[in-house]
Structures are given as structure tokens and as C-alpha cells.
């Protein structure tokens, strides 16, 4: 143990291979490894960790990383929550950074605490201006919103743009996005680029200007459910009833509906009822991005593509993993920004607990001690 006042050695960071089914992202990419190495940080990457994102081991070694056992590192960075086996491989006193699902997987947080792991959940990072570079929820939501529109266009029986041909003019498709956070705004922007007539809806009326800035119309249902931290609060029973009735009437006029609405720690709200689907034109498409939380559409089957009343309902899970190259690049920048906040000028791990970002994103410290 070093004497009091002695400088601590630079941190070591481990990057394991993600083992989840269908997961192709990696927590750090070579460009970010180079940045950390410039600060003196040692990086150990598990062999094959980047293959899903088309990054061979050779690119990591060229960036200054070592190929080896990432679990012995002082800091381990991941994309998905660790399995029980992976938690067992973390050394006591290690630091873990990643998506940890603290609201929905309390058993994981308990296991990490009992293992003596200092854990930081990227989804718990406060949504403040200073932390924008660390906002992994937003970076990955951008990927999901973009890909959702491509899926809708692929499943649709109609063109998105207006086409004028020798055979006549084809009207543009109409697209409605329900829930206009980061994923919803990206969906609106992408659908607009493809030529669709776009409309956005959210229970937070303050985002109406953002919707209009993308060239989309705002669907006003007269409900205001703005909550804390940029999220919507849960609706009252009366508000929910009003919303469903008015949405049912509106949804039937659209060719494509993309839903992104989530309430942290709760089941996703139902926005598209079975009656609304039945009222849509045959050949229409619903893409439900809230499938992992139960779905926004009453007829959603999470992870599946189904056809109900001649309407296609797709509920893809983990869309960012289907675009692993850019999703990994964005996530790696988020992780490195958070990690660099914990380092001192010599690259040693020295988190400042007076820092709001670190204090709020830390979900475990040690056994018996609340973060």
C-alpha cells in the first residue's frame, strides 16, 4: 500500500467482450483507446471484443491497448449489465461503468454491492448541460430513432416521398411519432429526409418547438404531463383516458406510427390501442421502440414482427446493436468522458464525490454502504 501523499499509478481499464444475444457493440473503440493512453491510462481488451463492431484486435494494439484479461483491471467498462458470472470475475474494489439497469434490475445492483464493486450506471447520469458528452441514453437513442424509420420504410407498402412519374403522382406517406425525446426527434428528422409528411406528439408540450424546427407538425391533444429531468410524469387515469381516446382518432389517419414513450422504472404507457390499429389503413406500419418495457402498442409482441388487421407491428429490441460501428463509437465517447471525470492529472482514478455527475451516476460503493 502506498504511503500517504504518494502519487497513485495511472488507472487500468478493461474492455470485455459483450456476451448478450445479438449484442455487437463494444464499450471502447481504438480512437478512444488512443485518447486514454495519451493520459497514461493502460487499456486491456479481451480478444475479439470488437469483432461484432468489425474492429479486429490488431486495431486495438495499434492504438496502444494490450490484448488480455480485462476483468483484472481497476476499471471495467461494458455496454450491458454484467451477468452473475461476470460479477464474480470483478475484483473487490474494482470500478464498473456501463448500462446497469438500476431501476429494473435491483438484483444486479445488490450483487455488485456485495462484491465490493464501485459501479456507475450511465443511464443515471443527470441530464444537465455539462454531462451531455456522457449521455449514453441519448447517443444510443439517436441510433434507435434513425433505424426505426428505416425499418418502417422497409415494411411499408407505400413510398415515403412524393413521386411524380409518367404513370401519375404518388402522395407522400404520413408518419406520426409518439414520444419526442431524442429517439423521437431523430425519427422525425429521418422520416422527413425520406420525404414523409411528419407529425410529432408528446405529453410534454414544451417540446413542440423542437418538433416544428424539424419541419414536422405538432399534434396537440391538450395534455400536459411534463416531469423532472426531461422525462414525462405518469398520467392520471383521467388524462390517460383522454389521451387514448384522442390518439385513437388521430392514429387512423397515418401510414406509419413510431412510438418511443417510456417512463423510467415503469411499464411503457399504452398509446396505440388495438382499436387504433384496427382503424389504420391496410398496409400501414407501427414500429414500437418501447418493447423492452412492455411496448406502447397494445398488440405489440416484444422482439417480434406481427401483422394484425393488415397492419404490420414491429417491436425490435436493442436497435443500437444493429448499427454497431457508429453505436460503439458514440458510446465509447460517452464512457471516456465519464471516465476522464474520475481521473486526476496523472491518469489515476480519483473520483470527486462532490461532483454532481459522479454522485448521481454511482449506484454502489461497497457492501453495506449506500451510493
From TrEMBL:
Pfam families: AlaDh_PNT_C, AlaDh_PNT_N. Residues 14-144 form the Alanine dehydrogenase/pyridine nucleotide transhydrogenase N-terminal domain. The keyword Translocase applies. Gene3D superfamilies: NAD(P)-binding Rossmann-like Domain (3.40.50.720). SMART domains: AlaDh_PNT_C, AlaDh_PNT_N. Its EC number is 7.1.1.1. Keywords: NAD, NADP, Nucleotide-binding, Oxidoreductase, Translocase. PANTHER family: NAD(P) TRANSHYDROGENASE, PROTON-TRANSLOCATING NAD(P)(+) TRANSHYDROGENASE. This is proton-translocating NAD(P)(+) transhydrogenase. It comes from Pseudonocardia humida.
